[in-house]
Design a protein that fits this description.
Cofactor: Zn(2+)
Order of helices and strands: HHEEEHEHHHHEHEEEHEEEEHEEEHEHEH
CATH superfamily of the largest domain: Zn peptidases
Largest sheet: 9 strands, mixed
GO molecular function, one term: metal ion binding
Structural class: alpha+beta
CATH class of the largest domain: Alpha Beta
Binding site for Zn(2+) 2: 100, 135, 401
Strand content: 15-25%
Binding site for Zn(2+) 1: 89, 100, 203
Distance between the termini: 41 Å
Number of strands: 17
Oligomer: single chain
Radius of gyration: 24 Å
CATH topology of the largest domain: Aminopeptidase
Family: Belongs to the peptidase M20 family.
Number of helices: 13
């Protein structure tokens, strides 16, 4: 991580508060290298306690729901009006960076502090939400905390899903943190989308676009949906590497290579036509118990992750890939089976919030770039519930999910300024 550079933007009271909170989070959840804040674990609980202490010191009302999500509320003039939520998660991957997720909660606290210091009173409640269990690495089900808040988690998952490091169930870990999985399983819904006017998530960018474009702030245009294939397999026939001529081979690797090249050709075509799409073959491997340097490979297993802002594009690609698999397999004497997929649809970002954020950035003379989010975020859960949702990205070097995350405070300060300006208009009443 580069040394943080002091600027006039980082010397304001709200930024001094933010810098201290980032330092406390890094120190108290340190797990060299980086930080570890496991979902429904000690590090996540420490992080929730730290932001709650700051919220109370600023006069906010602090409460926790039965799923462990934390709400820090600045009362507005009309307490019955639909509320404005600002939120993100506080957990991290193992030995991760300090800013993924946490920056969004700290941004909310910093923006509210700036508005309080300016004598502003919101028309409705502004709620900063610290969300539980977003990182999929701990419990293999997406957006645990935000989905539980709306009663969306399958009741079976509480006992079926186990944490990757302990083997204990989600329900066990929740009870250890004072939560009530039984009430949730029975149908309790801590949040009603009808009571939420907007949900805003501030997050570090997890890719390199803002850094490569020299832009501190991103305005998210949409959150890509995905098709995930976890159990693809190509079945050919093992044979002697020297004794079998090419025309008699059923080579699973060469068939797989052609199949992956076809996927890249689809990607090239979609880019050329202006469609949003990315594809990753994250695993592609032969059976270590059977493969060998002198064997024609008979089995290949693979995964695919396809993402787009259009679910129609994703489903069309699936249809085309399965047709290509049949053609390539018939020609090469193998069977190519991508397997079943799981489908998380794209999340719609409210165009009015996009325009508001872009207008706020222009008014403040802060460079901002509109771009899609390739990674999933809790914001998607709110969008799927029909809540007006928006996101801001903060420039960040060295990617995410690693201890070298490198968000700089001056960039964070500019994102907070955009958020604060937008909140004045949303909550001006």
């Amino acid at each position: 991580m580069r040394p943080q550079t002091a600027t006039p933007e980082t010397a304001t009271p709200e930024m001094v508060l933010a810098a201290r909170l980032f330092s406390d989070l890094a120190t108290q959840t340190a797990d060299a290298p980086g930080v570890t804040r496991a979902s429904f674990g000690e590090g996540e609980a420490i992080a929730h306690a730290l932001v709650a202490d700051v919220a109370r010191a600023r006069g906010l009302e602090v409460s926790t729901d039965i799923a462990g999500n934390q709400y820090m509320t600045w009362p507005g003039r009309d307490r019955r009006a639909p509320r404005i939520f600002i939120g993100s998660h506080m957990d991290s991957v193992n030995h991760g960076g300090n800013f993924d997720g946490a920056a969004g909660v700290v941004a909310g606290l910093a923006a509210v502090s700036a508005l309080q210091d300016a004598g502003f009173t919101p028309a409705q409640d502004i709620v900063i939400m610290a969300i539980r269990a977003e990182e999929l690495v701990w419990f293999p089900t997406p957006y645990c905390g935000s989905r539980m808040a709306f009663g969306l988690l399958d009741p079976a998952e509480y006992d079926a899903v186990r944490r990757s490091d302990t083997g204990r169930t989600l329900a066990d870990h929740m009870r250890a943190q004072g939560c009530d999985p039984d009430a949730l399983r029975a149908g309790a819904k801590p949040l009603d989308p009808a009571t939420i006017a907007h949900f805003i998530e501030v997050h570090i960018e997890q890719g390199p676009t803002l850094d490569l474009r020299g832009t501190p702030v991103g305005v998210v245009s949409g959150i890509r949906g995905n098709l995930r294939y976890r159990h693809g397999q190509i079945t050919g026939r093992y044979a002697h590497a020297g004794a079998v001529a090419r025309e008699y081979r059923h080579d699973a690797v060469l068939a797989g290579a052609e199949f992956v090249q076809h996927l890249e050709g689809i990607w090239d075509r979609l880019v050329a036509t202006g469609d949003d799409f990315v594809a990753t073959v994250g695993e592609f491997w032969t059976d270590p118990a059977m493969h060998g340097m002198t064997k024609v490979p008979g089995i290949v297993r693979f995964t695919m992750d396809l993402r787009s802002l259009s679910n129609a594009v994703l489903l069309a690609v699936d249809t085309e890939l399965r047709a290509a698999a049949a053609r390539i397999g018939a020609r090469r004497g193998v069977t190519i089976d991508p397997g079943r997929f799981t489908n998380a649809p794209p999340a719609l970002i409210d165009p009015a919030l996009v325009a508001l954020f872009e207008g706020s950035a222009r008014a403040l003379d802060i460079p901002a770039l509109k771009l899609p989010s390739g990674a999933g975020h809790d914001c998607a859960t709110f969008s799927w519930q029909g809540v007006s949702s928006g996101m801001l990205f903060i420039r960040n070097q060295n990617g995410s999910h690693n201890p070298d995350e490198d968000m700089q405070l001056p960039d964070f300060a500019q994102a907070v300024q955009v958020l604060t300006h937008a909140l004045r208009q949303l909550a001006g009443g």
